[in-house]
Amino acid sequence: MKTSADPVRDYLSAVEREASALPADRRQELLADLAEHIEVTRAERPDVPIGEVLAELGDPRTIAATALAEAGHGPAGASDQGGAFAPARRGKVHPLVPLLLLTLPFLVAAVLPDVPAAQFCSTLFRVIGAVLLCTSVHWTSAQKTTGVLLTAVLPTAAISIWISSSAAQASDSTPHLANLATLVLLAGTATWLWRIRRA
């Protein structure tokens, strides 16, 4: 009997076959989530055989049936068939939480620029928001990366460059314009992420 050289590819192909009734974009998201879960598990537990990792995920038919039931394409009881992966797909943190943590602390820091505790708390909450966004099941990996870049990395880099340059002392209105531009960027990105989130 011929054995497969790539059990992960075979497993994902089986899920893709079983979930063929799903819309193509939803099916690709499911496969991407599974592949990411496998990759993370293998990185965290490199000594565990790949067959055991795949067994923990559950039978491809069960995973496909769960995804179909969630999308309204299958029997109502399909999500209760015991797939190990199905419960992990439900987010424990509401998708609004990381978006608020990435946006609101900036307002506090902008209103209280001379209070070190406000600046520290703002940074801390924004880091927590970025971590929650990255670990959320409500967005794809590309959407998470874009969200973190636009809400955490880009504003922080822009503010750091602005503070270290002579423009920070040039005018009293400049900080207000910079804060307003940053707030518009954060609010726009948070709105975009909210609209494209998965249920």
Q: What this model shows, in words?
A:
The protein has two domains: 7-88, no CATH class; 96-196, no CATH class. The protein is elongated. Residues 75-90 have low confidence and may be disordered. The chain has helices at residues 7-18, 24-44, 50-57, 60-70, 85-88, 96-111, 116-135, 141-164, 173-196. It is 70% helix and 0% strand. The protein starts with 6 loop residues before the first helix and ends with a helix. The protein has nine helices and no strands. The protein has 199 residues and is an all-alpha fold. Helix 1 runs antiparallel to helix 2 (24-44), helix 6 packs antiparallel against helix 7 and helix 6 (96-111) packs antiparallel against helix 9.
Element string (H = helix, E = strand): HHHHHHHHH
Which of globular, elongated, flat, extended, rod-shaped describes the shape? elongated
Q: Count every beta strand, where a strand is a DSSP E run of 2 or more residues.
A: 0
Low-confidence stretches: 75-90
Helical fraction equals: over 70%
Q: Determine the mean pLDDT.
A: 78
Count, helices = 9
End-to-end gap? 43 Å
- What is the C-alpha radius of gyration, as a whole number of Å? 22 Å
**Range of strand content:** under 5%
How many domain regions?
Answer: 2
Largest sheet: none
Coarse structural class: mainly alpha
